[in-house]
Each structure stands twice: as C-alpha cells, then as structure tokens.
TrEMBL record:
Entry-linked Pfam families: FGGY_C (PF02782), FGGY_N (PF00370)
Family label: Belongs to the FGGY kinase family.
Domain Carbohydrate kinase FGGY N-terminal: 25-251
Keywords, ordered alphabetically: Carbohydrate metabolism, Kinase, Transferase, Xylose metabolism
Organism for this UniProt entry: Promicromonospora vindobonensis
Protein name per UniProt: Xylulokinase
Length: 555
C-alpha cells in the first residue's frame, strides 16, 4: 500500500502527522568538529537534520571549548533542524516523543556550590594527567587512562590547583548539557564509565574503588567523597527527567519547543556509536572514525590482566566493553584535502570541500598495497597507545619510494588506522573473539574506500549500514526513542539489545567487505614501517615546538 502524499510537500502525510503529534525522537551529539541534530520518525529512520561546525581551541596549553560555544552551536544545529523539518514536511515541530544528548566522553568539567565552572573545560584531548593516571592505575588495579575525569581531578590535586577545594560536582559535556536542560545531574552508564570505573554487576560506580580513593580526596575536598562529586548513573531507557522551561529556551531561543519532553540518559559518543551499529551484544564491535578513532568490543568476560592500551567501559546498558581509543583520527586527512582544495582554486577550478575529500579518498584505491613506501603520522596531539605525549603531523619518505597521489592518499588513510591496529593486537593476545565489526562516521560515507582499508588493517570483515554517515546523532535519537517506548514507566519492557534487533535493525541493509589478501599484506608492511618510524615522530616532538608550548613544558 502506497501512503498518501501531501499535495504541498510531496511527503507522506503520515510523516507530517507523526511530527505534529510528537511521535518522533530528537538526538543531539556534540562531536569534536560538529554539533549535529537528527530527528527520527516512528520507524527510527532519519527525517531531518541540522548541524553546526566548531573547533576546539588550545588556550594556555589546554584543549578546550567555551560553554558559550556549546550553547550557540547547539542552538544553531537545532534551529537548522527545525527549519529542515519545516522545509521538508510543511510543519514546524513544537514537541518530540523524547530527546537525547550525547557528546565527547571523558574530560573535566568542575563546578562549585553556585554551579559556576571553576576552570575551562578540559577535553579528552589533554594528556597532562600522566602522573595521576599511573598512580590510580596502580592503586585500583584497573587501567585509568589519561582522558578519564577521575585522572583529571587527581592530577589537579597533585598539582595543588587552588580550585580543587571548591569542587562540588563533576560531569561530562553530555552530562552538563542534560543538566542544564532538565535540572538532573545524571549520566548514562556508558558515559559514566569514562569518568570512573563501573562495576558490571551493579552497573554503577565500583564501590570498592570509590572507597579506595576517598582517602586521596579527603584533604583536598573536605567533607566530600568521590561519589558525592560524580553524577548519578542510569542505564539506557531510564527516566532522566524532562525538558524544563529554562531548558526549552536554551535549546530553542525562538520559543517553538514546548517544555515537558522526556529525555533519555545522556550518553557518550562511544555508546551512541555502539547503538548506531547495533553492536551492544557480546562478540560484536564497532569502529568510529572522526577527530579521534576508537574501536569498541563487547566482552564475554573480563580480561585476564590490566592493559594500558585498553579502556574498560560499558555499553549504554552497562555491559563490559574493551575500548581501543586513539586521540588522532581523520583530522590530518581532512587538512590535506583542504590544501588540495586550495590548489584547485589556485588553478581556477574550485570545488566543494566534500567533493575534494571524496576525490582524495577514492584515489587511495589507485595506490600500491603498502602505500609505495611512504610514511605518515596523523598526530595532532599526544597518543598514549604509542607513548607520545604530544603530536606533530608528519609525512616522510625514502628516495626510492613511489610518490603518487594514490600512494599518498592510501598512506594518509592507513595512518588513520595505524595506532588503532596496534591497540587491537592487544585484544587478539587476550583471545577476544569477534563475530562482527561495524564501522560508522563520516569517513565511511564514501563507499568502498575506508571500509576496505579498515578491513585490511583489522584483518577482519567490516560492515557499514545505511546510517553510517549519521553516526552518534542518530544513535542518541534511537536511545531517546527507546526511552519513549517506556510510555512513562521507569524503564522499557524490552532490554536494549532486543529493542535494537526488533525495532531498529530487523531489516537493516548492511554492506560487508571481507579483507583483501593483497591489502592485508600491504597494510602489514606499512604498519611495520609505521612502528619503526615512531622514533622519527618522537624526534619531531622534541625538536619542533608549537607556538603554545605551555602544555608540553608542563610535562
């Protein structure tokens, strides 16, 4: 049966009615370079979107975003989405079935009694917490990466930062936005697992570890325990509050949106990536590629020992996940695409940035399997997996290498996957098995390139779905729809995995690429060269100083 079309818009009338009645879900994700809003309909398919580009800033040696930039960017993306809906369907939404907020995980947002930010937001990209990370890992017997919120707090204590005594609560970027929209200081369990270790049995902060750290905190923050400082943990689907009058005004200054819309627990970008790729069950995994790149593998059991290369986090439902997180993803590849775009303009042949990026990416398929002997590092910042405290983007080659556009492009793509591949080897040594690896993010919107080369880097099949380019904004919209399915109850009847299988991915179209033997051998040769050349990268860090050396000098 063909659904009746609206004469004015040409769109199915059922979609217009769903929008008018609020049978939709809005997802907002604050990523590293873009804030995106995604609206989905009753079938979980994207209806409209809006976005706003932004960039982190290196201020006094700290990678940060201002809170003003958070709100101006978020508002711009929501207003763009509302306009997109109106343009497509002839109606401007005043409500949704539910809203979800997601953002970059980890980092340090510390507030005082008056809910004032004490120091500028320290993002996941900052790597000045080495002492605290090592100390906490040894004390807890659990890897505490440099990015984690508890490492930032402990490092501030070790550095005698004067603001510490005033800290009354900590949160993540997603938690901060959710708090301002609802008044509730809560976090989804997946995002919370990047602040402090989670007990997979209780699906809450690990009580033993909390008790162990209270002694380290006692003198620095009198009268407060670690638990006092952290947001309350909620599993996917739980009641996380509703949009307040103040929140509605923050989200949409035009006054279109009405308060009272339920929100799902705020999540991190790792959790929304798992949802967006239907990889929340044991033996599934996904790779998300953006400014950073990371792989998430849902474990069947705990790992045998502590690995500094791996974060132990959770799915949005609270199941244990091994995370291989690399600070540096596709930003350097994007920078080269921008340079080639400028060259095209100089030739009098200007092209859209997206077209330039796609052309560069596709040319990688014309390169030699090993990249022709070229070598590149995409390190704009430090990379803990390879022991680099700072980064210097680097391209080098030997005189007998083959410098072609195809080899250059393939080498740049290989460099995006290089550190990830080294981290995944640790999981292989732990005999962790995978049935499926999914990929998502803008890098995979160009069909048949990054997916094929990632399969070579992992030596495993890689699946990409039709929503791969939607990424986390779509994933958090799905989590919002999952919350809405509870229909006012404390939690939905279906568990998250069952809901995704039955309601979201039952007829999903997947493109699966098997690793090509020649590509696998070529990437292996590249990775050997890449590992050996890390000495060059270290020398570059020591020799080449940035204009703002405060952060590096502090190490």
């Amino acid at each position: 049966m063909v659904e009746r079309q609206d004469e004015g818009t040409g769109q199915p009338t059922g979609l217009r009615e769903a929008i008018e009645q609020g049978r939709t879900a809005l997802g907002i994700e604050l990523g590293s370079t873009r804030i995106k809003a995604c609206l989905i309909g009753p079938d979980n398919a994207p209806l409209a979107s809006g976005s706003h580009d932004w960039e982190n800033q290196l201020v006094d040696g700290t990678w940060t975003y201002s809170l003003d930039a958070v709100w101006s960017g978020l508002q711009a993306s929501v207003v763009a989405l509302l306009a997109d809906v109106e343009g497509r369907y002839g109606v401007r939404p005043t409500t949704f079935g539910a809203i979800g907020v997601s953002a970059m995980m980890h980092g340090y947002l510390a507030f005082d009694d008056a809910d004032e930010l004490l120091v500028p937001f320290r993002t996941w990209r900052n790597t000045t917490t080495e002492r605290a990370s090592a100390e906490l890992t040894a004390l807890l017997g659990h890897n505490i990466p440099l990015r984690w919120s508890i490492a930032h707090l402990r490092q501030a204590i070790l550095d005698d930062e004067p603001h510490v005594s005033q800290v009354r609560h900590l949160t993540t970027l997603a938690g901060y936005v959710h708090w301002r929209l609802t008044g509730h200081q809560v976090l989804g369990v997946g995002d919370a697992s990047g602040m402090f270790p989670i007990d997979p049995v209780t699906k809450d902060y690990d009580r033993r570890m909390l008790d162990q750290l209270d002694g380290l905190l006692a003198d620095a923050v009198p009268g407060r325990t670690v638990a006092d400082l952290l947001p309350r943990v909620l599993p996917a689907g739980a009641d996380a509050g509703v949009l307040t009058d103040e929140g509605a005004a923050l989200l949409d200054p035009t006054g279109t949106l009405r308060p009272g819309i339920p929100l799902c627990p705020p999540e991190g970008d790792a959790g929304t990536g798992m949802v967006a790729t239907n990889s929340v069950a044991p033996r599934t995994g996904n790779v998300s590629a953006g400014t950073s790149i990371f792989a998430m593998v849902v474990l069947e059991k705990a790992l045998e020992r502590v690995h500094e290369e791996l974060d132990l986090v959770t799915t949005p439902a609270g199941d244990l996940v091994a995370m291989v997180h690399c600070n540096n993803g596709a930003s350097e590849l994007g920078a080269w695409a921008e340079l080639f775009g400028q060259f095209a303009t100089a030739l009098g042949r200007p092209a859209e940035p997206g077209a330039v990026f796609e052309a560069l990416l596709r040319s990688a398929l014309d390169g030699d399997a090993d990249g022709g002997g070229l070598l590149a590092y995409n390190y704009l910042s430090g990379e803990p997996i390879t022991g680099l405290e700072a980064g210097r983007p680097l391209f080098t080659r030997t005189p007998d290498s083959r410098l072609t556009l195809g080899n250059f492009a393939r080498t740049q793509v290989y460099s995006v996957f290089g550190t990830l591949s080294l981290g995944m080897r640790v999981l292989a040594e732990e005999q962790v098995e995978l049935d499926a690896m999914f990929a998502h993010g803008g890098l995979f919107k160009t069909e048949g390139v990054a997916q094929r080369l990632l399969a070579a880097a992992l030596g495993a099949p890689v699946a990409v779905g039709r929503t791969a380019g939607e990424g986390g904004a779509w994933g958090i919209a799905v989590l919002a729809a999952y919350r809405a399915s509870a229909q006012g109850a404390a939690a939905p009847e279906q568990d998250l995995g069952a809901y995704l299988g039955a309601e979201v991915f039952s007829d999903a179209e997947l493109d699966v690429v098997e690793p090509d033997a020649e590509d696998v051998a070529g990437f292996s040769a590249f990775l050997e060269r890449y590992s050996a050349g890390l000495a060059i990268e270290r020398a570059a860090v020591e020799t080449l100083r940035t204009r703002d050396t405060t952060q590096e000098a502090a190490r």
